[in-house]
Amino acid sequence: MATNTLLPPSADPPLERVLEFPDNRLLIELCGEFDRNLAQIEHLMDVQIVRRGNTLAIHGGAQDMAADALEVLYDRAEGGRSLDPGDIDAVVRLGTANVETGARAGDQIEMFQTGDLEIKTRKKTVEPRTKAQQDYVKALFAHELAFGIGPAGTGKTYLAVAVAVNQMVNGHVERIILSRPAVEAGEKLGYLPGDMKDKVDPYMQPLYDALNDFLPGKQLAKLIEEKRIEIAPLAFMRGRTLSNAYVVLDEAQNATSMQMKMFLTRLGQGSRMVVTGDRSQIDLPRGVSSGLREAERILGDVEGISFNYFTSKDVVRHPMVAKIIEAYDADDPAERG
Predict the structure, then answer these.
(1) Which of left, alpha, beta for 102 (phi over 0: left; psi -120 to 50: alpha)?
(2) How many CB atoms lie within 10 A of CB 259?
(3) Per the CATH hierarchy, to which homologous superfamily does domain 119-332 belong?
(4) Per residue in 162-199, pLDDT tens?
């Protein structure tokens, strides 16, 4: 735990906030190679951090927030947990959320700090990195049917697949079923080479990518061969009852109203369902309503169903993705060509 050095009170804010860290080895890990972790915090929080022996002096208007972030990251290192760029970004995001919502300092980052919301899979441990992601993960564990709605890059599908793998590995479900509508976005399936599987697999690739992050290759291949993990287009769900399974419907904004109702009524005993989608990326033909929008309207007040929403602030891909989403959201539709 870092030690704070408090400067004498005055009418003006202090010129610097000084933190002292007792373990020099952990301080080196906190700073990162060539102080890259400090540089990331400086960039994200618009502060300056000066290293002096086993102390860090913080200058700038956000020095208190930066101090909170550094203390949390030091505690993570002390607990043997990761300090990669994504972890640093998460702590900064959650600390910023405290200020925006008026929450007590540290409220939003407590679970990230303690690891209470870690999702353990066979290959890696995943943690939600924003407040919206934390709420979403809680809902995935607490509800039999959960919706995750928001722009690309916010972790909707990734976290859902991580929880699905966690639940199967721990014996809570017997199988995983991942699905998405095979809707063309500028290309026609019929023009692609190969049989039906070859035509459909490119649409399913993001689901394969997520699974590869959480399960060793040989084990994943065996589970797919044994049908304990299925990845199939939404149309293949008709007529089935999905029991003792963790079922994820991705890109749900491209499901028609009839398809959405068909999918939701597949829920069987011992199963859980997650529906993810982005209302800004509907590829359905003109005049065909999105089943995701209709499900929001019809099911919004049904007890036991959770709806979780994400914004550009929850984007955990490259920071430029968030800027692109914000620019499109701010664009006036009337000005588009």
Answers:
(1) left
(2) 18
(3) P-loop containing nucleotide triphosphate hydrolases (3.40.50.300)
(4) 999 999 999 999 999 999 887 654 444 455 455 556 66
